[in-house]
């Protein structure tokens, strides 16, 4: 029997029982979806520099998030609403606390929170597939992942369910996990042994499977780690979806975005806000007739903080101190910083790593994001957190030679920021009176072609328009955020011997030299 037939039978039954309740606007079924994404190991509250750079207030943290979820769930249930709690992936990677036990300690804590389903994110693969399977088993997180299959058998992986069905009695909801197909290129190499299937295509397969289930389902909600742009594409190919709960692009969608009748939501990152979606369904047809989204700010509030989890978070923070003391490599010489038209060893080293990792033509890093020098000798993990303290991730995009020239020119002439470091380029500068100007730009030793297209590797801050070096035409363009934190990228490179050769040449050259 088809999903439609099963649903009609159920609706006839409900209509017979409900009497005048059927179709009444006053008696709509109220379903609330509480959602998070990209927690990235955020155990402790964050300094909200986006609210006040000089004196940032604290926001979020795992214990505060858990307390808000529990309080909201309790209040909503008492008011007669049905409640789901879901997460859009990238659980533990990104903080010293999250890395304790290679993510097991943090993931075990979120496994104790009232999540109904948690999509597997690309960073869950960072220590390899066997580790991920063990992590899910030991932490008991309610993982979902539908579009990843074993290459030889063609079967889905057996360490995560493709979907989870929540049965409220009068409403059956299927939560389907969908992960970015870029995962093999942005995480541990053994992810390349798996097939990452196009999410829209796999969702059609899942829909057929759900329709064939005994009892069927009434509502399908993808919980994704695809990024908002791919979520929009997914909605275009599946216009029947009322809601997509997303992750991966760290988008702060305060009221969500809509593609046709589909509401797409995402709640920033790092346990700073809690997303809430209110869905109102006709009690007979079980169709969504209204929806709205909001983000709940997580300002300090002891009455809405999980006290037991707060103690566990404090203990994890103390354990992370040892994790931060772990040696990750050795530098053959000092990584220093610079200003003006002089490249630094630190900037050259970081941007070379960025460019090599993405096979890009060029790479750019803002000097303001390099926060300390590193001396020659052993490097511990805390050193990398201190030189690259911000949660910026490796991002790639395509731009023309003219746009690239304008970017470097802006960095040289704009004195309101500290400038840029780069790889794959040589900037030729000259003086016009008191002004320093860019007279030429070489890519791999060859003058830039203004109409040619180049792949740029940079960080998510610059890619999003930070420091306003990149033209607006570039920052609003489609880009790929790999989700790889720059400090993790440098740790990986150190493990491969990148500390042995430190590039110290000056990539800014005065005209006529």
Description:
The strands form eight sheets. A six-stranded mixed β-sheet has the order 6-5-4-1-15-16, with helices on one face. A five-stranded mixed β-sheet has the order 21-18-25-20-26. Helix content is 29%, strand content 27%. The N and C termini lie far apart (79 Å). Helix 2 runs antiparallel to helix 8 (307-324), helix 3 packs parallel to helix 4 (129-139) and helix 9 (345-358) crosses helix 14 (486-495). By secondary structure, it is of the alpha/beta class. It has two domains: 3-320, Metallo-dependent phosphatases (Purple Acid Phosphatase, chain A, domain 2, 4-Layer Sandwich); 325-510, 5'-nucleotidase,  domain 2. It is built from 14 helices and 27 strands.
Topology summary:
Layout: H1 3-18, E1 29-36, E2 46-47, E3 58-59, H2 62-78, E4 82-87, H3 104-111, E5 117-119, H4 129-139, E6 143-144, E7 148-150, E8 163-167, E9 172-179, H5 183-186, E10 194-196, H6 199-212, E11 219-225, H7 228-237, E12 243-245, E13 257-259, E14 262-265, E15 273-281, E16 288-297, H8 307-324, E17 327-331, H9 345-358, E18 362-366, E19 377-380, H10 381-387, E20 393-400, H11 401-413, E21 420-423, E22 425-432, E23 435-443, E24 446-447, E25 453-459, H12 460-463, H13 472-475, E26 480-485, H14 486-495, E27 508-510
Parallel strand pairs: 1-4, 4-5, 5-6, 9-11, 12-14, 18-25, 22-27
Antiparallel strand pairs: 1-15, 2-3, 7-10, 8-9, 13-14, 15-16, 17-19, 18-21, 20-25, 20-26, 22-23, 23-24
Helix pairs in contact: 2-8, 3-4, 9-14, 10-14
């Amino acid at each position: 029997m088809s999903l439609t037939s099963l649903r009609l039978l159920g609706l006839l039954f409900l209509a017979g029982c409900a009497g005048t309740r059927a179709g009444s606007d006053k008696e709509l079924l109220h379903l609330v979806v509480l959602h998070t994404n990209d927690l990235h190991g955020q155990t402790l509250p964050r300094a909200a520099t986006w609210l006040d750079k000089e004196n940032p207030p604290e926001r979020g943290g795992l214990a505060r998030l858990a307390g808000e979820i529990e309080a909201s769930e309790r209040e909503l249930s008492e008011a007669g609403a049905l409640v789901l709690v879901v997460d859009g992936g990238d659980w533990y990677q990104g903080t010293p606390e999250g890395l304790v036990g290679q993510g097991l300690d943090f993931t075990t804590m979120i496994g104790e929170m009232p999540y109904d389903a948690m999509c597997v994110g690309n960073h869950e693969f960072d220590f390899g597939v066997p580790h991920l399977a063990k992590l899910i088993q030991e932490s008991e997180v309610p993982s979902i992942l539908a579009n990843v299959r074993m290459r030889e058998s063609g079967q889905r992986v057996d360490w995560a369910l493709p979907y989870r069905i929540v049965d409220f009695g009068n409403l059956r909801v299927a939560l389907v996990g969908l992960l970015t197909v870029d995962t093999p290129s942005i995480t541990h190499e053994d992810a390349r042994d798996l097939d990452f299937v196009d999410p829209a295509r796999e969702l059609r397969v899942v829909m057929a499977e759900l329709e064939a289930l005994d009892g069927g389902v009434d509502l399908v909600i993808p919980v994704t780690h695809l990024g908002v742009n791919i979520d929009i594409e997914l909605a275009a190919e599946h216009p029947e979806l009322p809601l997509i709960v997303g992750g991966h692009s760290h988008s702060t969608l305060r009221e969500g975005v809509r593609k046709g009748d589909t509401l797409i939501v995402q709640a920033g990152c790092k346990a700073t806000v809690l997303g809430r979606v209110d869905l109102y369904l006709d009690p007979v047809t079980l169709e969504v007739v209204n929806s709205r989204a909001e983000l709940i700010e997580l300002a300090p509030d002891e009455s809405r903080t999980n006290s037991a989890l707060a103690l566990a978070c404090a203990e994890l923070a103390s354990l992370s101190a040892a994790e931060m003391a772990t040696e990750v490599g050795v530098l053959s010489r000092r990584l220093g910083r610079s200003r003006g038209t002089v490249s630094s060893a630190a900037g050259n080293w970081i941007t070379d790593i960025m460019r090599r990792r993405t096979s890009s033509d060029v790479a750019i890093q803002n000097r303001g994001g390099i926060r300390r020098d590193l001396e020659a000798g052993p490097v511990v993990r805390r050193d990398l957190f201190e030189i690259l303290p911000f949660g910026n991730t490796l991002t790639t995009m395509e731009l023309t030679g003219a746009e690239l020239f304008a970017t470097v020119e802006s960095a040289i002439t704009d004195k309101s920021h500290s400038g840029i470091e780069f790889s794959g380029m040589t900037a030729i500068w000259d003086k016009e009176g008191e002004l320093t100007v860019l007279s030429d730009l070489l890519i791999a030793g060859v003058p830039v072609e203004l109409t040619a297209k180049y792949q740029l590797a940079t960080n998510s801050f610059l890619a999003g328009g930070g420091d306003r070096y990149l033209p607006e035409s570039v920052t609003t363009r489609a880009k790929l955020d790999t989700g790889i934190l720059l400090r993790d990228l440098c740790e990986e490179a150190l493990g491969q011997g990148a500390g042995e050769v430190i590039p110290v040449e000056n990539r800014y050259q005065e005209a006529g030299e």
